[in-house]
Amino acid sequence: MTTATARAFPNIALVKYWGKQDEDLILPVAGSLSLTLDAFPTTTTVALDAGARSDAFALNGAEASSDATRRVTRFLDRVRELAGSEARAVVTSTNEAPTGAGLASSASGFAALATAAAAAYGLDLDRRDLSRLARRGSGSASRSLVDGLAVWHAGDDAHSYAEGVSGPDMRMVIVTVDTAQKAVSSRAAMRRSALTSPFFPAWISSTEESLAAMLEACAADDFTRVGRITETHALRMHAVIQSCDPPIRYLAPTSVAVFDAVAALRDQGLEAYATADAGPNVAVIVRPDQAEDLRDALQGFGSVRLVGAGAGAQLVAPDS
Ligand code: PMV
């Protein structure tokens, strides 16, 4: 096959990935755990173009920036190395989430790209190896190869991949408070956190503890424990980010207001827990039978969308 199309969904981490042990291989300082969503997909077609001298990348119908194209080329270089090919490619991608606003578009983007590129270049990779490959584009993308709840293992290149875990059934309400591109990329902010936050060593050890506790809570099907770990861990990540020099703050006043509203709803018996990635938007987990009440309660903070657990990246017919 020299042309392939894949679709992938973003994921939202309940135990966050924040910091790299190896920047080239994208090996994380600790493991993480996420929920792959059933909304905001990225669909990407990779078509080999034997005569071309460089790769081309179009995102949402327009030529992508040179930075974005370079990132795609770097990723395809890895695929070409594995495939023993020198062919350049035309990459066409559409993204249903606002790019760069903390809704993990890089996760769905590189999961879809890895899946489509592997097929177009004729690589026969299983899901584990596709997860390892997607990781090289963006760490969180390793988790979007997996359906529903996914744990991404820390470790060396061979062992750092994501795989499925079972856990409580849940829904998520995504509150989009701002769709602007973030001022500091997560890549740069992770590096600054590791270099300048005095809390970074504690962040690594506490993430290991949170992940172990989260895996236990998932195995026990304990939504309350999953939720408590999720919210505490998210605020710890933002504490580390805010403690950089110079500081970075991703949470907007409205984001904080959503965390407060969620805490108030819990007091009233609506059991929900908030998290936020490297941006101002907030994702709130809830039991399925309270999901619609939560969505209604959070209208007014931004645009709200109720989502569930979705599928890992898959090849699709070109125009589906
Ligand atoms: O994969 P990246 O480089 O976009 O990093 C994403 C990091 C967070 O979204 C903030 C946390 C996570 O685990 O997804």
TrEMBL record:
Its EC number is 4.1.1.33. SUPFAM superfamilies: GHMP Kinase, C-terminal domain (SSF55060), Ribosomal protein S5 domain 2-like (SSF54211). It comes from the Bacteria. Pfam families: MDD_C, MVD-like_N. One of its GO terms (molecular function) is ATP binding. GO terms for cellular component: cytosol. The keyword Transferase does not apply. Residues 8-161 form the Diphosphomevalonate decarboxylase-like N-terminal domain. It is an enzyme of class 4 (lyase). Keywords: ATP-binding, Lipid biosynthesis, Lipid metabolism, Lyase, Nucleotide-binding. GO terms for biological process: isopentenyl diphosphate biosynthetic process, mevalonate pathway. Residues 173-299 form the Mvd1 C-terminal domain. Belongs to the diphosphomevalonate decarboxylase family. This is diphosphomevalonate decarboxylase.
